[in-house]
Amino acid sequence: MSVAEENLGRAALRNRNLVFGAVLTLVFAGAALISFLWVPYDITQLDIANKIKTPSLAHPLGTDHFGRDILSMIMVGARTSIAVALVAVGIGMGLGVPLGLAAAAKKGSLLDEVIMRGNDLVFAFPSLLIAIMITAVFGASALNAIIAIGIFNIPVFARLVRGAALSLWTRDYVLAARVSGKGAARISFEHILPNVMNLLIVQGTIQFSLGILAEAGLSYVGLGAQPPTPSWGRMLADSQTMISFAPHMALFPGLAILLTVLGLNLMGDGLRDLFDPRIRRVAR
Prior knowledge:
The protein is mostly helical. It is built from 11 helices and no strands. It has helices spanning about 5-15, 15-35, 70-105, 110-125, 125-140, 140-170, 170-180, 185-220, 230-240, 250-275, 275-284. Helix 3 packs parallel to helix 10 and helix 7 packs across helix 8. The two termini are about 20 Å apart.
């Protein structure tokens, strides 16, 4: 391990936001992974005799209106929320990054104008409205929620990459690459992209947290994952009429969303501080 890597590792351990955010994120990511192998109770089995039970030793987080164990529902629901957000961010990165690189490489050209005006067009429509439009055509499902959130992520990454790449195109090493005969596409992927990866990691973490919020919101209004697939947003929607006498049904899914998003945002802030040498010097 190089000295630079050791210094980066020490700085990461000293960054409280990064450490605390990573711990919170790993807790829920771990719960999602464990749910593939084991959950306390089978969430497909209804137990009406034990419906709306408050937390106890048998059911640490209580049961819902169908008698299903809420802890098991949250563990499996974490799978849904994380998968939807992860794939949606992947779509945003996979399409937005090449578009941003192309726009920066051809600054001022027709291609640049088409890409940026297309981004403005997508931003003009809220993600929920896009989801409603997609759902009206294809029906409500987790797949359509992924598409809706992914479409909204594309211009976010395209603008980020274009803005960062424009300043890099004036650097000496890029000019040297152009003189050596390399084309714009090759320069973009060999020299520009590696130098914007830090920004992409930070933004990807932030968009991941927003994706979880968006998935929960879409499921809450019935446009996301459909029953019997558990979802934190769907659990909140099911509990809204019973919150006065069974508040635990809304409290625990809400806390799951809150803590996961908080962890990802803290981790994003920590990564930003870690990768920005100016902030790191001030922190010393």
